[in-house]
Amino acid sequence: MASALLDCGIDLDVANLVIIGLYFVLFIPALLLNIMAAWVSWKLKTKSSFIVYLKNLVAADLLMTLIFPLRAADWLPGAPQGLQAYNCQFGSVLFYLCMYVSMVLMGVISLDRFFKIVQPGGKLLGQSVLFGTVVSAVIWVVLLSTQVIPTMVFTNEKPANYTPKLCMAMKTDLGKQYHTGITLFCNVIFFVVLVIIGFCYICIAKRVIESHRNSGSMNMNGERKIKARVFIVLVVFLVCFAPYHVTRFPYVEQQVENKINCHWAQLNVAKNITLWLSTTNVCLDPLIYILLCKAFREKLYELKIFRHWFSTTTQDNSGDTSL
Predict the structure, then answer these.
(1) CATH number of the domain encompassing residue 244
(2) How many CB atoms lie within 10 A of CB 106?
């Protein structure tokens, strides 16, 4: 089928090899960064809901990173159909679970910072470890029950032979309809979290800058750092997740209708590349922890990780409020 699509100017076999290479290139730095983040977060004392969310985010990113080789192997030429079927029913489902848990937690963290800095009166319950644990558990349970378990149950058909749409061929009719619905649900999650993050961090930046100015501080460098941190969070979220969510829904429509044509091939390549782009978030999240979490920076310094660099960073930011 891939050769038939050469007339479209697209060779799916070559495109798949490129995707394989991209995942393997990303895997090593992602694994090292997330092991480091997991080790540091394990050492952090769980004193607030923020640390609870941080630890859950690290867990989701690390699990997602460990799935990379399985996804890459799925695209290897001559990959066993059993491996591909396993990925359709289990591997890919867990992959998407981690991605959306990570995304929702980023939104929850921004709300947590908003209520601590902008609306401190609302932090009495929301800043507790118990509250953070309950919220984190609800996120995992809701996504497991709406995204993971139904998808696994509805992806249980055994296709007669290999097809470029193996995953869709394994779904029941109800599973195909559910797949369209869950795709729309995930797109809604993305846009809601985007609005929350944008609103919260812009308000936080304004409040912190106003606080600096009201205290008589003329530290313009500090204001620039605050603006840069907010900008980085928004840019990382947009660059990583926006292209994929723009591409995913039209691709799924073609996928469900079982149309294998040039338009489907173009969307397939675009979907795979933008999905890989969204996974780069697992490398960028640890850098965000360093920029936004003072406790994380201090623990890195205590554990002598990048100690020379943090010896000045920790001092420079000793008065900062973690965004």
Answers:
(1) 1.20.1070.10
(2) 22
Strands (E), 172-243: none
The pTM of the full predicted model, rounded to 2 decimals, is 0.86
Distance CA(290)–CA(288), nearest Å, equals 5
- With respect to residue 96, please indicate whether it lies within any of the assigned structural domains: yes
For the cut 70, the answer to whether the pLDDT of residue 6 exceeds it is no
Q: Within 10 A of 196 (CB to CB), how many other CB atoms are there?
A: 18
How distant, in Å, are the alpha carbons of 246, 275, 319 from that of 269?
14, 10, 47
In a domain, 139, yes or no: yes
- Establish how many alpha carbons lie within 13 A of residue 65's alpha carbon, considering only the half-sphere containing its beta carbon: 27
**155 strand-pairing partners:** 171
Report whether pLDDT(190) > 90. yes
Q: How many domains does the chain have?
A: 1
Q: Looking at the domain assignment, is residue 322 inside a domain?
A: no
Residue 323 lies in a domain: no
Compute the distance between CA of residue 30 and CA of residue 12 in angstroms, rounded to an integer.
26
Domain extent, residue 87, equals 3-316
Give the C-alpha separation, 233 to 228, whole Å.
9
Q: Helix axis angle, 12-43 relative to 49-74, nearest 10°?
A: 150
In the prediction, which pLDDT does 318 show? 39
Q: Are 43 and 299 in contact (CB under 8 A)?
A: yes
- pLDDT tens-place string over residues 15-46: 888 888 999 999 999 999 999 899 888 888 88
- Over the stretch 76-105, which tens digit does the pLDDT of each residue have? 877 787 888 888 888 899 999 999 999 999
User: In whole angstroms, what is the distance from residue 134 CA to residue 311 CA?
Assistant: 36
Three-state DSSP class for residue 257: coil
Positions of E strands within the chain? none
Q: Are 109 and 53 in contact (CB under 8 A)?
A: yes
131 CB-near residues (< 8 Å, 6+ apart): 49, 125
